[in-house]
Design a protein that fits this description.
The complex is a heterodimer of chains A (about 290) and B (about 280). The N terminus and C terminus of chain A are likely disordered. Chain A has 12 helices and no strands. Chain A is about 80% helix and about 0% strand. In chain B, helix 2 runs parallel beside helix 4 and helix 3 packs across helix 4. The N terminus of chain B is likely disordered. The chains are: A mainly alpha (about 290), B alpha/beta (about 280). At the A-B interface, helix 9 and helix 10 of A face strand 6 and helix 2 of B.
Chain lengths: ~290, ~280
């Protein structure tokens, strides 16, 4: 593109103007593009939420079962102003967030360590591999019932369930990440005299990091699901408890309100993970598809 | 051998003495395939590289050239036969060796400077000293000012320069090169060959250089070893008596002696290449 402009400018004898004109045109095009994307987004949101409100108001859809946006808003206001039967919404949200966060940390730590260990040891991975796949194929969410029976209604079984869900996502990625390590790079540092520990620190772990970080996005979602489901199964505090209570009183609006709250929390956590990703993986080449052909 | 843990002090080639001599005797390497069959990659390979000599290995695809290199580096252990470096049999990673591959084998997550620093750091050199040494080497390969870039921000030729600096910074007594310029375009390749010769003449490590490119082999080497098709063994050894320093590899290609040597080597290699091709074509 630049080469083309240069050869043109040499002939046209008006280098500055052509260059600036192209720049301005490009900027206008980019602005128009982002504008149209935002318009599309707003239209979509209005259509979905407005349509929901309209259909339930007209009675085509029963708001007793499916809730109504305006009622959800009211539920949110009530949750934040009056609180719940189990304390303020902040208290409950704090408990859930804490469970999810601790479960996320625990699951990630164990997943990374085991993933790297098994990924770098062929014998160990051959022995344990089939069992990991078997455990992965059972519906782990049901373990929540066992954890609650075994450890009671406190926070611990919730953390455990969240950690179990997180573990598998992170584990498989760490495992794969180690497997994908460039063998030339390993050979290279080994020849230079690196010990197995140095190979792990300088090659294996940084290389697997790309895969591990990618898994954290999904993993946090699983941590929240684990914490919520365990709370629904039995708890003394937490968003999951509010949800199961609302279900018992035929109150879909509060359930939706809780979903909104959790979605906000998850988006916030997601943005933190994005920050982490940019920091750790700043060496990565920028995504080519992000550049647009004009 | 004590000196091997620290980078050798740069000195005149004569000082390198015999510690860079490679002696391969009756080397055989078999691999166990996942099905439990054995596959013989190289059979009874014997060759020697004098200290400070530039030796190329040429042979058809899949004849075990890389396998031979892996045995010399000590990354793999031979099934039969032996490799000695500087008079000591290879057992475990050979000390004082650097490797250069066709793929860059650079750390994509490390800056250019940190990539080059890796060698001394792994040998336990203090960071400040390693940084100075790496800066000096980047200057020597013409990459001063690119210290903070990441490998993906560089062109193929520049990445090769980084790899070269990283391979030579420890002043190795042996440099193993596995088709290092195989993926480069013709012009870049010629530039890198000249660059390599220049640096080699300064440090004079023994070089084992794998290539498919006969011109490259003749232009760079003191000795060219021809290997047979799989399982590989040594077919012929040619000593290249073109005077040193060779100067520009682009120009040496037109000299009469060069063409004569190249023709003789090609005669020897031709049959093997044809046979190897027939084998793969028959198998397919």
């Amino acid at each position: 593109m630049t080469a083309l402009t240069h050869s043109e400018t040499r002939k046209s004898e008006k280098p500055v103007e052509t260059e600036t004109a192209a720049k301005i045109a490009g900027r206008i095009k980019a602005r128009r593009r982002s504008m149209s994307i935002w318009i599309g987004r707003v239209v979509l949101a209005v259509a979905v939420v407005g349509g929901w409100q309209w259909f339930t108001t007209e009675g085509w859809v029963d708001k007793f079962f499916f809730g109504q946006p305006s009622e959800i808003w009211n539920s949110l206001v009530v949750l934040f102003t009056e609180g719940t039967a189990f304390g303020t919404i902040w208290e409950n949200l704090g408990v859930t967030a804490q469970e999810a966060f601790l479960g996320f940390l625990l699951g990630t730590a164990v997943g990374v360590v085991l993933g790297i260990l098994l990924g770098s040891n062929k014998y160990l991975s051959a022995v344990v591999g089939p069992y990991i796949r078997i455990v992965n194929s059972i519906p782990r969410i049901v373990l929540g019932s066992i954890f609650i029976v075994a450890f009671g209604l406190g926070v611990f079984p919730k953390i455990l369930l969240a950690a179990v869900l997180v573990f598998f996502v992170v584990f498989f990625n760490a495992f794969q990440g180690v497997r994908e390590v460039d063998q030339n790079l390993v050979a290279n540092v080994r020849v230079l005299g690196a010990s197995p520990y140095q190979v792990a620190m300088h090659v294996t772990i940084p290389s697997a990091m790309t895969w591990i970080i990618a898994s954290l996005h999904t993993a946090f979602g699983f941590a929240i699901i684990g914490a919520l489901v365990a709370e629904v199964l039995g708890a003394q505090k937490g968003i999951g408890l509010i949800i199961s209570q609302a279900q018992g009183t035929f109150d879909p609006n509060t359930v939706f309100a809780c979903m909104v709250i959790i979605a906000v929390v998850t988006l916030f956590a997601e943005s933190l993970i994005n920050l982490l990703e940019h920091r750790i993986l700043k060496w990565r080449p920028p995504n080519r598809s992000e550049a647009q052909a004009i | 051998m004590n000196t091997a843990r620290t980078p050798r002090p740069p000195g005149p080639p004569a000082k390198a003495a015999e510690e860079g001599r490679i002696e391969v005797t009756g080397l055989t390497k078999r691999y166990l395939t996942p099905k439990g069959e054995t596959f013989t990659a190289i059979r009874d390979v014997s060759l020697s590289v004098e200290a400070g000599q530039f030796c190329s290995i040429v042979g058809p695809t899949g004849c075990g050239k890389s396998t031979t290199l892996a045995q010399v580096s000590g990354l793999e252990q031979p099934s039969a036969g032996s490799v000695t470096v500087g008079g000591n049999p290879v057992d475990g990673i050979t000390k004082g060796v650097s490797y250069m591959f066709q793929a860059d084998a650079l750390f994509p997550w490390k800056s250019v400077l940190s990539n080059v620093m890796m060698g001394p750091i792994l040998l336990g050199m203090p960071k400040r000293q390693a940084t100075d040494l790496a800066r000096d080497w980047l200057r020597r390969v013409g990459l001063a000012g690119f210290e903070d870039r990441y490998p993906h921000q560089l062109s193929g030729g520049m990445r090769k320069r980084v790899a070269m600096a990283a391979a030579l910074i420890n002043n190795p007594r042996i440099l193993l090169m596995d088709e290092p310029f195989g993926a480069l375009d013709v012009q870049t390749k010629a530039i890198m060959q000249n660059e390599l010769l220049k640096l080699w003449e300064e440090l004079r490590p023994s070089v084992l250089f794998i290539t498919h490119d006969l011109d490259e082999a003749v232009a760079l080497s003191d000795r060219v070893v021809i290997m047979t098709s799989s399982p590989g063994s040594v077919k012929d050894v040619f000593d290249i008596d073109l005077p040193r320093p060779r100067g520009n590899v682009q120009e040496i290609r037109h000299e009469e002696r060069f063409l004569e040597l190249q023709g003789r080597i090609w005669e020897s290699l031709k049959d093997e290449v044809t046979r190897a091709y027939a084998m793969t074509a028959g198998a397919a």
